[in-house]
Every structure is written in C-alpha cells, then in structure tokens.
Specification:
Blueprint lengths: L10 E4 L8 H10 L6 E2 L3 E2 L8 H5 L11 E6 L3 H14 L3 E6 L4 H5 L10 H15 L4 E6 L7 H9 L5 E5 L13 H14 L4 E5 L5 H11 L3 E4 L2 H4 L13 H19 L6 H4 L2 H4 L6 H9 L4 H7 L1
Length: about 300
C-alpha cells in the first residue's frame, strides 16, 4: 500500500539528517514532541548493507512501532546493492524506500552518490528501477536538489519525474550552495509545475528553511507542493510540528532533554560515545534566560549521570 496517498495535505515530514534522525531521536519526537506525518531514517549506505560490515550499518535501520510511517533512505550507486537493500528494508517493516540524490558531502559525491547522481541520470534511473524491484509493493521516492553547481531544475526534475516515482522531495538549493544561502522556493514551485505536466500522480515535497507549520502551509499555498519536509528547523524549535504554535517553558524543554538522554543511554549503552548526544543540547537549551551558561555546563559533562545532576 502506498501510504503517501493517504496523508492530509500539506503533510509534514521530518527530514533524514546524518547523525541526527536515528531511532532514538525519532522515538523522542514520536512520543514526547509533536509528531510529523512521516519519519525518515538517517541516510544508509547500500554497500555497507551488502558487506561484512552489515551488522554495524543495520543500526541505522532500527525502528519502533511508534515511528510509522517511516521511510528508509538509502544511498549508493550499485543497482544490485540497491535492489537487495530495498528488499531488506521491506522485510524489516519500513513503509517506503527513498533514494538520496541530494547529499552535498564531498566524500559521498566523490563516490558518485548523493548529488553527484544529478550528473549521471542513467545511473539514477537504474537505481530507481532496482529500488522498485526490491521494494515490491512499497512506494519509492527520491530526495534531490535543484542542481550541482548551477540550477538545473527543468532538465533534472523532468528526468526524475519520467521515472515513475511515487514522491519527489526537492531541496531548494544546489549541492554547491549546501545550506549557505536561502532555499529557492521558486524553483521548488517550478518542480511542481513540471510534475503537473509530466507526472501528476507523483507527489512533490518541498524542503528548505521551514521552521513552523504555518510557514509550511504558506509555502504549500504559494507553490502547490503536496508536503513539507523539515530538517534543521527542529533544532530551532523542537515543537516545529505543532499545529497551533504556543510558548513552552524551560521545564518542558529540560524534561524532553532528560528523556532523550535516558533513551540514548538505554538504547546505545553507557559505552557509546556520549559526545554524540551533546549535539542535541542546543536544541533543548536555547530559549530561556541563562540558557547559554547552562548549556556550557552541560557540554562539560562526560556521562549521562553528570547531566542528570544538572537537570
């Protein structure tokens, strides 16, 4: 079943973010914060899933019942590995498969993956076909950008929409721009117009600089997207998926932080590098008087126990 077609419009999606949207963070968002309509995993390498290092890579594909619908985002360049990985994700219980064609990381692009696929459309098409073969009945989507070094929306988006994908997420920047300039929503709107002509059945999701449900709805009304993907916006406002914006207290922020630390420790164990958890401190400790000083003390903590003493 294609769950995407059952969602309200606009629907809201938590973006796949490397080192962020692991099973722990998704669970905290699902149970302790306003829940998006769709979750994505961190982007997961298909070569890793088909190697001796499979066990370590599989930790990226942990999921819980609270996180549905959840889409596994995969990246790489080998169609045979894509087909096997998509089949594995279907077996693991994911609701959809997404192919990353937008990551601007230099190492990823050097390998031919991520945004580099914009320059190799034949490989991109092979990967889509392979994902669909492995996913069977699951919907297949693509997340991409509007170009590599320059804007190439017309040609690239038109090509993707000819590949019979269920959903296309368009990040309104080129790979070269990374996140250094404002997202170009005019180009996202252009992608919608192209899809209306070429593939009206495909849903288009807009991504870039959305920090509230209200701003997402505004972009839907202005540009006609079916859904909104939120990435870094959740770091600026953990309640970003709240339908009716309200003010949240220091106690609310710190309560969620404590639950996050507890679940992180329970899931990954005391031996896991705790510094990884620290990237989330600014998300919870930034909106009340004295937050900067308090956050500095938290950053000095080396164990969960030290954090609990400050909370």
């Amino acid at each position: 079943m294609n769950f995407w077609t059952t969602l309200p419009k606009p629907f809201f999606v938590l973006a796949p973010m490397e080192g962020v949207t692991d099973v722990v963070f998704r669970e905290i968002v699902a149970l302790c914060l306003p829940k998006p309509d769709v979750f994505f995993t961190e982007f997961t390498n298909i070569d890793g899933l088909n190697s001796e290092g499979k066990k370590a890579t599989l930790t990226r594909l942990k999921l819980t019942k609270s996180q549905h619908p959840v889409v596994a985002q995969l990246w790489g360049t080998r169609p045979d590995h894509m087909e096997k990985s998509a089949a594995l994700c279907a077996k693991l219980g994911f609701d959809g498969i997404d192919i990353n064609m937008g990551c601007p990381d230099r190492a990823v692009m050097k390998s031919g993956g991520g945004s580099a696929l914009i320059n190799t459309p034949s490989i991109a098409a092979d990967l889509i076909r392979a994902a669909r073969a492995g996913a069977k009945q699951l919907p297949v989507s693509v997340k991409t950008r509007i170009g590599v070094n320059t804007i190439n929306t017309d040609e690239w988006i038109s090509f993707l929409l000819q590949q019979n994908i269920d959903v296309l997420t368009v990040h309104g920047r080129t790979a070269k721009q990374k996140s250094d300039v404002p997202a170009n929503w005019e180009e996202i709107g252009k992608a919608v117009r192209i899809k209306n002509e070429i593939a009206p059945h495909t849903l288009v999701v807009g991504n870039g600089d959305i920090e509230s449900v209200e701003s997402g709805q505004s972009m839907m009304e202005r540009h006609g997207v079916d859904g909104i993907m939120v990435g870094r916006g959740i770091f600026h406002n953990p309640w970003v998926f709240e339908k009716n914006t309200s003010i949240h207290t220091k106690e609310e922020y710190l309560t969620v932080l404590r639950k996050h630390v507890e679940l992180y420790t329970k899931t990954w164990g005391e031996g896991k590098n705790f510094d990884v958890m620290k990237k989330f401190f600014k998300m919870y400790v930034n909106s009340f008087p004295g937050a900067a000083e308090y956050r500095a003390k938290l950053m000095e903590c080396k164990t969960p126990a030290e954090v609990y003493q400050l909370l």
